[in-house]
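FAQ: What does the model actually see?

It sees only this:
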Amino acid sequence: MPAALPLRHFLLALAVVAVWGINFVVIKFALGQLPPILMAALRFGLVLLPGLFFFARPAVPLGNLALYGLLIGAGQFGLLYVAMNGHISPGLASLVIQVQVFFTIGLAMRLSGERVRRFQWIALLLAAGGIAVIVLHTDGSTTPLGLFLVLLAALAWAGGNIAAKQGAPANILAYVVWSSAFAVPPLIALSLAVEGWASISAALRTADAAAWAAVAWQAWGNSLFGYAAWGWLLARHPAATITPMAMLVPVFGMGASALWLDESLPLWKLTAAALVMAGLAINLLWPKLRTVLAARG
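And it is asked to produce this:
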């Protein structure tokens, strides 16, 4: 635990990453009763309401709000839910989606013209090696289509990160709430076009309280609590202290999936996880470590 982070703040950050990791199991459970695109629409609908009545519209252009809502709503979560609907296991989904870090760096560098540095190439190669291990072991629980969809979801997440950086909202929670207004309509339209009204109406009639609780967990726990607490921590501590804790998300995701869904953790999955997380660790921690070493030298 970083010395600069008080115990209560550390436990709060740990609670956030635990919620984000366990959410992959919650998604899998809800998908047993709800079509994936409909579930994404319901999730962002519950983010939008009642949040719309508690947060003023952030002072960012409507186009920026719309772009973020489309990329995160229809892009990241729409694709992720479709992928997890029988095409990839929750544990691996929680791991693969983390490559958004490298997509974000690539998009940012393309926009700024900055060149990729050596340690970033090493980090990227390690993470790519982890993805390659997963590709070589696709089976009934994880398919090439599922892996491709999660990678697209990670790319959409990266685009959302860039949109949020360009919008520079003063209140990220208000930004998430209001951008959901642009996520819900396309998700509803896609659900009607792809899943059909018969499937939608049947799911809405038969979904039990546990399924609705799972949707509420994603909206209020994963989105509202997660973003609010993470933003609160980032406002009080350096990003270099808080951000590395996000690497625990796939640890919680894979652990919860193994514990509650009996997802197996063979050597190849652990190897893939080690490679991806090593890449994330180098990318996040190397600049700080190099600064510390230079100061001591």
